Amino acid sequence: MTSTRARRSAFWIALLTALTALTACTSADRPDEAERTGPARAVTAALRTVERSTGQAESARVRSTTTMGSTLSMKADGTLAWADDLTGILTITYTGGTTAEAMRRLGTTSMEARYLPDAYYARIGEAFSAKTDGKHWIKYAYDDLDDLAGSAGADLADQMRGTAPHTSVKRLLSSTDVRKVGEETVGGERTTHYSGTVRADAGTPEQTVDIWVNGRDLLVKKVEKGRTATGRLTQTAYYSDYGVKTRVEKPPAGDTVDLKELLKDSAGR
After folding, report:
1. Which of 20, 141, 155, 245 sees the fewest Cβ atoms within 10 Å?
2. Where are the beta strands (DSSP E) in 116-268?
3. Rounded to the nearest 10 degrees, how much is the dihedral formed by the CA atoms of 90, 91, 95, 97?
């Protein structure tokens, strides 16, 4: 592999790692209601109300931080909408880990990310756009991810479509030990704290999910923790300004390159 091809491959892998970090906590099936007894039923009823209220809000402003062992530390800030398909705009900044180091060498430590119904778009830095014929956007078509990465790619596409805040509540509803922790203040607002453990599938270690809900039954904070091959995973998000108007435009076609084409080009060099 030539050094140029190696650098390009490293960049695409870095971006894919970043995408995985944004959606690292996967969804889980809900257990049979017969498994729940006593007070857990009251907690479940409350959480279903939160899921419904947060889902009906249809948009929010989000700030999040994610750490994946030694691989990546990053923060994101922007808005998401989920009335139908997920859409949104986030500014992502890489703050540590091997992925951030690789991207820093390639001339970028932050990017704009746009979620649209058909694809995820990432704006690369000026320094690296010279290696994509001057184009500034990379398109990750959801339909292509399955072909590019097998079942893992399909899972990633599903996860990326499921990053709206009420999906965290849905994950917590899958927990058989979910409980009300107590009343706490978050950002000056009184909230109710719920916590539980979830398992994505038989091969995935348990993860903990904590959420904080305000008096309008809206999610205002969530923390998800687990383990990855490179160490601990921690993802914390804050949600505010529910109902905020979010308009997301597709990047210009002439300024966009498809990831599938980039990988073909790298393989041929």
Report:
1. 245
2. 119-123, 137-141, 179-186, 189-198, 207-213, 219-228, 231-240, 256-258
3. 50
Question: Which among 7, 23, 269, 10 is positioned nearest to 145, based on CA atoms?
Answer: 23
Q: What band does 37 get if pLDDT is binned at 50, 70 and 90?
A: very low
Please give the structure tokens belonging to residue 140.
């990750």
Q: How far apart are CA 47 and CA 237, in angstroms?
A: 18
Residue 91 host element (H or E) = strand 87-96
Residue 23 φ/ψ, nearest 5 degrees: -125, 30
Determine contact, residues 107/126, Cβ cutoff 8 Å. Answer: yes
Neighbours of 245 (CB within 10 A): 8
Q: Which residue has the tokens 């990750």?
A: 140
Tokens of residue 118, six digits: 């058909």
Q: What is the pLDDT of residues 55-96, one digit of tens each?
A: 999 999 999 999 988 888 999 999 999 998 889 999 989 899
Tokens of 2: 């030539």
With beta carbons less than 8 A apart as the criterion, state whether 194 and 179 touch: yes
Question: Residue 59's CB: how many other CB atoms inside 10 A?
Answer: 20
Place of tokens 């990988």: 263
